[in-house]
Structures are given as structure tokens and as C-alpha cells.
Amino acid sequence: MTVFLIRRIGQTMITLLVMSVLVFVGIFMVGNPIDILIDPAATPLEREQTIQAFGLDRPVLEQYWSFLTSALSGDLGNSFLFNQPALDLILNRLPATLELAFSALFIALVLGIPLGIVAGLNPKSPLARFIMGFSILGFSLPTFWIGLIMIMAFSVFLGWLPSSGRGDTVDVLGVELSIFTLDGLSHLLLPALNLALFKISLVIRLTRAGVMECLQMDYVRFARAKGLSETRIVSLHVLKNTLIPLITVLGIELGSLIAFAVVTETIFAWPGMGKLIIDAIAVLDRPLIVAYLLITVVMFSLINLVVDILYSAVDPRVRFGDEGE
Amino acid sequence: MVAPASMPTLEVEGLETRFITRRGPVPAIRDISLTVNKGEIVGLVGESGSGKSVTGLSIMGLIEAPGEVSAGKVLLNGEDLRKVSRRRLRQLRGDRIAMVFQDPMMTLNPVLRIRTQMVEAIHAHDQSVGAEAARQRCRDALAQVGIPSPEERLDAYPHQFSGGMRQRVAIAIALLNRPDLIIADEPTTALDVTIQAQILAVVQSLCREHGTALIWITHDLSVVAGLAERIYVMYGGCVVEQGGVDAVLDRPLHPYTDGLIRSVPWHNEPGRPLNQIRGMVPPLDRMPKGCRFWPRCDRATEGCRAPVALDEIRTGQRARCIHPLVESR
Amino acid sequence: MTDAALILPEEDDLPPPPPPRSPGRELLIELFRDKLALTGILIVWVLAVLAFLAPLIAPQDPYDLMQIDFMDSRLPPGAESMTGMTFWLGTDDQGRDLFSAILYGLRTSIEVGILSAAIALVIGASIGLVSAYAGGRTDALLMRIVDLQLSFPAILIALILLAILGQGVDKIIIALVVTQWAYYARTVRGSALVERRRAYVDAARCQALPKRRIIFGHILPNCLPPLIVVATMRVAYAIMLEATLSFLGIGLPVTEPSLGLLISNGYTYLLSGDYWISVFPGIALVLLIIGINLIGDTLRDLLNPRLRR
């Protein structure tokens, strides 16, 4: 197990390194490197000074090295838009995005898994067909459009829920979270639901496929031959086998949710990283873009790492290896 | 041979199972009748596609859509398994009648411990057994099938066992509640020959010891020769011959049985071409009407195209053939 | 042997064999039989025809600045222009006829979706085949890259690329290709590996067929089923991704017709009641995507070997 851990962490480090090179190459080499760190509105004198200060006239490898070292120390330059350290800006908005993403994941699982099980147990029943039809709708409806419709329906026509912004927050371990306040929840519900919709369909389908596959397995037949009740067969034998592969998917899905939050945040004016990055791309605020990318890459790698560890802890075949005989 | 003094443990009459395909219902087995007496070991022999596995599953009631058991009676100790409630069927399965499957790899759930899968078989039928008592029974069962260090093995996962061990576990589970009948569907086909011999020995001795009746389904004649008392030979979804194992194997009546026996390679003299039954088993939806075997039979006549009954041609031996091999060899 | 005459089976004794059909034809028949898939095919067909006939049937070319009049902006559905043309679905804030704009937008969506999927498929499938056939280190390396690519969400990759490359139809297509190729690579590599181990490849090799013939003539055709499913789903996803990016303002430039842009234009007017600017293009987009997904869904069920019994 420890060997596995060390190996995985090593892989993560390498991935991060590779990604940093890619980001560097992408942002700093493509296009005029001069314009990257210098505000387009700067005077020629300021440009000269900045070129000197940032060493843009130095060889590429040196530039990369200084990029890397300053990144590791937390300095990624100042955002053009806000004239504040880019990294700090991103980090400030991170909790809001994470709150949204995790809530969406939670909703997707809580709704998706039971529906998937129902659809998988009796695939030909009208209920199952309905659930599957609904799931097609789920991943066919573009997040941004359904968000608009949601706002129209729930905020404008029905007036039940607020249409934008984040609610009141509560300080939990130094992080501001809105999920613990009623006002916060009412602001969180629509965006989280919006973001979750696409994923709910995925979870339903995966669970259904998993359940259907499990039911055809010999061990289910054997369990029936033992005289076990259907309830036990489904809730233990089938469920455990279905959920284990779902864990790996969760990791990727969480990352995808964090990325897709960009859209939801734009529509619902949710103050997360996503909204920031869209504005940044529009004006080519490179320090901000770089900061966002690096933070995202680090997060994804961490998520993947955690998911791998979780998976190996849960699947006995991986945990105990092949001891055989 | 044990004279059946009381009601037979299993009596199957006219069992028919079919599969609903896009082109209509296709029968997999037809007019299957078997009897297994208390403590008897019976062999069900046939090649792939003969319907022997389907028969076993049909008896247990484990046939699922698109298949269905469409006719017949399955009397377990007098109770018709086809007519009882689902609840009663569940009570009987694993308790009075048990099954062992062919592939030991997937019979056991890979993500659950052995002990979980064994204890649940006990608790499904008797909730009152305490945890420690159940564990004890499982330990003993594992020891009985010849698994060393049963205590540690209980906490292990299936993938930590070899194929032969897994099959032993499956047998142990089948025997846990001392059923009246075990149906073993080709349990050793996927295993090495030496392991096969060990498992056969274990099963035989345990069945004798507990008085458990056994239906051993296989395509391997050599296995039934040493194990069973009576055998049923299946072809094309029907029983084509049945009788005492020695009688059927030494003096087969049905041409198919004869062909099967001759096909075993070691019957052949070295250097001579291998015996084979010409032709191939037709697919289920293209079965000939009448005798199933006639297109491949050297003795076929016009009369073979009509349905043939399973007649008692010699005492205690039946064959579904109008040209049985009654001359002695 | 008895003296009974030897009889051989005659054809009329056995039930008649079913007429042989190629797997492709079987598939199409099954596909048309499924109601959902049929609906999908119908929807896509209608929309595609409308879209490609756009220049002919649209009352107005909404991206020709000479044809639109700012005075016509934000007219409700059914209103008439100064010139007597009826705006069936209303106009947007620039005075564009929404019906025409939607037709042109659909055209762009379909073109971009299919083009990017096709390019990605060729690239991805080639890489997948090479990877599977080469095996060993090459395979391991290529698949690591594929895994890395797949562990990052498509929208993120698209965002990064568009940030670097800027705006434009070709840049969007590049971005969509980059987000997709890995799916094709992985699918094809998976199928190719399975096929490679099959007996018929050994048989072909025994016949000393050239490698290229084995790969393209034998292995590739058998990789097609999952590939078709993946391709269909990816086209739908590409269309949605493009619309999303355009909506966010980093996709297609404002001068190109795009459903996403239309929707984003109308966003500001939603709350004031001029719903049609966002809703109608949205409906068109949703119908297109649902149609494709319905087809893809049924294809997946039909082509899935594991769910068949």
C-alpha cells in the first residue's frame, strides 16, 4: 500500500511539472511574450522597465525557471484588471466555486444513484424507460440554457428563489461557506441544481449499466440459489460492485464540475473562480489566466490522487493484490 | 443399488423450457423427466447445447427472461417447485435444494469476504443462529471440503483463492444447510484434471456421509463413470437414454450414446482415425422434427422423422430410439 | 448396421433458415424500429435539411449588415417589418430575423460539430490503432497522454486553447478537436487490442498479409461499432460545447452565426419579458442535441455486446 502511495504521489508530481511546462509554453511563448506581463496601456518606459524586471530578454530556460520558482512561492504577477496579486484573487474565489461544485456532486449522487438502481433492476418497465428518457434530456440540455429557463421559471415567474449571487456566509475554519445559512442555501439551490443536471444523467446511466451488468453475473445467480432475498442481493451484492467503479468516475466528474462551474457562475452571478476567468480571457489578463490554470491543475491532480487512493482502499482486489495460492 | 423405499427426493415430469426470441419461442428442453432418490448420485450427460445446464437451472427455478419454464412438474419431496410461492421457493433454495455452478471465478462475489457469503447462506434460512455459532459452522464446512487453515480463510476475499479452492468453497456453501439435493452444473469442467479428481472425491464422500442426493451435470463420460449410479443422456434438449451407469456405458441402446462413448479418444487404437459422430449439433431453432439425432445417425429411416417416445427397451434402461442397439457387442 | 436404408436429411424437413443480412443492414433495421431513435432521426433530419437549405429558405441573411435594420430590433414574434416581411419568431436586439438567424446558426452548429468530430476521429483513431498495434512502450506512453488529456474537462481545455489562440471559427474547431481526439483514441485502441488477440488475426498473419492490410482491412472494421457510438455522442457534445463557449463570449466571433451568441444576446432581455430572443434559439439547439443523443443512445444499446444475451 505504501509503495502504491509513493508511486502515485510521484506520478502526480511529474504530472504537475509537465503541466507547468505546458502552461508556460502556452502562455508565455505563444504570442508576444512582451505583452504577457505588461499592461497593454503601459508607456514605452514602463515597458522597458518591466522587461528588465521580468527578465524577458533572458534565455527561455531561465525564464521558465524564474516562472517556476516564483509560482512556487506564490507570486504570479498582478492582474491587469484588478491590479492585485493574481494568485490571491483566484484563491479568494476558490471556496465559492468548490462549494458550488461539491453541492452539485452531492445532488447528482443523491438523486442519480437511486434512480439508476431503479432503472437497472427493471430495465423494461415504464418507470425505467421514463428515467432513461429523462436522463437523455439531462445531458442534452445545455447547462447555460437550462440555467436561463430555471431563472425565468423559479425567480421571475414563481419568485421562489433568488436569481443571482451568493447568500450569507458563515466562517468555517477560516473559509467562508454559505451552505450553513438558510439564505445561503436558497441562493445555492438553483445554481447547484443547474450544474448537477448534466451529471445526474451520467450517474443514472452509469449506475443503471452497472446494476444491469451485475445482475447477469454468476454470483447473483449463486446468491439466488442460496435463497437470499432480492433486497439483500441488490443492496449488498449488486450495490457494492456497482459503486466501486463509480468512485473513479467521481474524481473526473468533480473536476468537470469545477470547470463547468464557469457557465453556471456566469449565469447566476455566483462569485467564484469561473466568472473571473471568463472576464480574464476576454481581456487577456494573462497573470490571472495563469493563476487559474495552475490552481486548477493542482486541484485536479490532487483530486485524482485522492480518488485513486480511495478506490484502492475500497476494492479488495486492489487492496490485497493477487495473493492467490 | 439403493432400493427406493420412500418418496423420491426429486421427481421431474415433462419439464419444458423455452426462450422467447425475436423469431418466436424456441424450446431449449422438452419432455424432460427424471427421478432422483434419497441419497442417490445421478449423472446428467450431454454435449454443449444439449440442454443439460438449462435443465439444472429450470429445476432450481433460476431461468430468467427471455427464458421461461413453460411446462412440467418439479417435485421436491413431493412439493411442486413450479407452483409454490416465491417466498417458499426462496426458503427451499439453499436449504433443501442447492446448486453449484461451473465457473468458480464468478460464483463468488469478488468484493465480499468469504465469511460474509457463507454466513448469509445460513442466516437466510435460520435467523436464530448466533454469529459465533454461524462462524463455527462455516469453519467446519470449509474444513470438510479440505481447505487448510479455515479460520484465516474465512476473512479472505475470493480472488485470494485458486480456482479449485473457490469451487470447494462453493460446495461448502451448498452443503451448509444439509440440503436434500445438490445440483452440480459442470463444477469441475474449468479445473485441472488433478484438482477435478480431488473435488469429485470430496463431493462423493460428503454426499454419502450426509445422505444428500446429487445430480452431476457434465459432458465428460469418464467423470460419471466413476461417480454416478444412474445416468441420463441428453441430446438436442431431450433425454435420449437413461439407466444404470454400468448398463448404459457398457451396452448403450441409443446410437448417440454409442457414438459418444466411442468418441472418447482413448477408446481409439493408436494410428487409426479418431471416431466421430458426423455432422454438428443443429442450433436450437433448427432442430429436426421427430428424433433429434436422425440427421447424424447411420441407422436412420423414414420412421425417425416422427416423434419418438422414451421406451423401456431393457429392464431399467430406456432409450428414445426406434432402432436401438440391442445386439450385444 | 441394420438393413434400414440410409436416409440423408432433406431441406424441407428442417425449419427454413432465416434470410442472411449483413450486420450493417441489421443495425439499420433495428435502429429504425426503435421509437426513440426514430424520433431522433426525424428531428435531426428535419433540422439538418432546414439548416442546409438556409440560404434558400431564410427570408433574410441575418449576417449581411445591409439587410438588417436597427429599427426592427426586439420585435415580438409575428411582427412585420417596414418592408412587409413577417418576423415569424421575432427579432433580436440588432433587428435580425430570428427565424433566419436560427437557421444559419443551426448550419454553423452542425458544420462545426461534424467537422471537428470527423477530424478528431481520424486523428484519434489513427493514434489508437498505432498504439494498439505497436504495444509496449509506445502504447504505454500514448495511453498516458490520452489519460492525462481525459482527466481534464473538455471545457477547461477549450478555455485554455481559446485563451491562447484567440477567436475564430478555425480556432474553435481546433479546440473542439483537441478536446475530443482522446475519446476516439482510447475507444479504438481498446477494440483493436481485443481484436488483435482474436484468432482471425493470427490466421491472417499466418497468411502473411501485410500489416497495413491487417490493420485497416480486418481490425478496423471490427472497431467500428463502439466508434460509431462514441462519434455520435461526441458530435452532440461538440455542438453543445461550441454553443456554450459562444454564449460565454469566447467562442465564435460576433460576425458568425451561432445559436450560443443569439442566446447570450437575449439573456439581458429575458428579465424584461422579451423572452423570444433567447428561448427560440435555445429550443432549436436543444432539439438538435436531443435528436442526436436519441440516435446515439439507441445505437449504444444496440451495439453493446455485453447487454445482449
Textual characterization of the structure:
The complex is a heterotrimer of chains A (325), B (329) and C (309). In chain A, strands 1-2 form a two-stranded antiparallel sheet. Chain A is an all-alpha fold. In chain A, 76% of the residues lie in helices and 2% in strands. With 329 residues, chain B is α/β, with parallel strands linked by helices. Chain B has a domain at 1-96 and 180-187 and 220-329: Rossmann fold. Chain B is 31% helix and 23% strand. Chain B has helices at residues 52-60, 86-92, 104-107, 114-123, 131-144, 150-154, 163-175, 193-210, 221-227, 245-250, 255-263; strands spanning 10-21, 24-36, 41-45, 67-76, 79-80, 97-100, 181-185, 213-218, 230-235, 238-244, 311-314, 317-319. In chain B, the strands form two sheets. Chain B has an eight-stranded mixed β-sheet, with helices on both faces. Chain B has a four-stranded antiparallel β-sheet with strand order 2-1-4-5. Chain B is globular and about 65 Å long. Chain B starts with 9 loop residues before the first strand and ends in a 10-residue tail after the last strand. Chain C has 309 residues and is mainly α. Chain C contains eleven helices and two strands. Chain C has helices spanning 23-33, 35-52, 54-57, 98-134, 136-150, 154-165, 169-197, 199-206, 211-248, 259-270, 276-303; strands spanning 79-80, 86-87. In chain C, helix 2 (35-52) packs across helix 4, helix 2 crosses helix 11 and helix 4 packs antiparallel against helix 5 (136-150). Residues 1-9 of chain C have low confidence and may be disordered. Classes of the chains: A mainly alpha (325), B alpha/beta (329), C mainly alpha (309).
